[in-house]
Automatic annotation (TrEMBL):
SUPFAM superfamilies: Restriction endonuclease-like (SSF52980). InterPro entries: Restrct_endonuc-II-like, Restrct_endonuc_IV_Mrr. It comes from the Bacteria. Residues 13-90 form the Restriction endonuclease type IV Mrr domain. This is Restriction endonuclease type IV Mrr domain-containing protein.
Length: 124
């Protein structure tokens, strides 16, 4: 992972950050709320990606996780990967390189259409 950038704003939209990894530029959205992330938040982030270059990707990190409806609404053919607090814990606890986690999440999303696959499933 390279060239991290902190939060920035463009034409009234807030982006929590961006980074480059494995030849792709990712926009970052992070939610540290108590409740699970709802469909509206995921749709808004996907909309931000739609306004950017076609090759841009997004990483949405939600400490509390995601509602099933939210993930279903986001659906397939999106450029968003999702991580929750348990994924972050597993990544740190098992000393997994974050770059490896992102590569495996991206590959699984391409192969299955699932934007959220737990780290536990990716690193059996």
């Amino acid at each position: 992972m390279a060239a991290p950038r902190g939060a920035f704003s463009l034409r009234g939209e807030q982006i929590d950050g961006s980074f480059q990894h494995d030849g792709h530029t990712y926009l970052l959205e992070a939610k540290w709320h108590q409740g699970k992330t709802q469909a509206d938040d995921l749709r808004i982030f996907e909309g931000k990606l739609q306004e950017k270059a076609a090759w841009s990707r997004g990483l949405f990190v939600s400490h509390a996780g995601f509602t099933e409806k939210g993930l279903d609404t986001l659906g397939r053919n999106k450029r968003v990967l999702c991580m929750d607090g348990l994924d972050l814990y597993e990544t740190l606890d098992r000393r997994l390189p974050l770059g490896d986690v992102i590569v495996r999440k991206a590959r699984k999303a391409v192969e299955t259409g699932r934007v959220f696959v737990r780290v536990r499933e990716l690193f059996l």
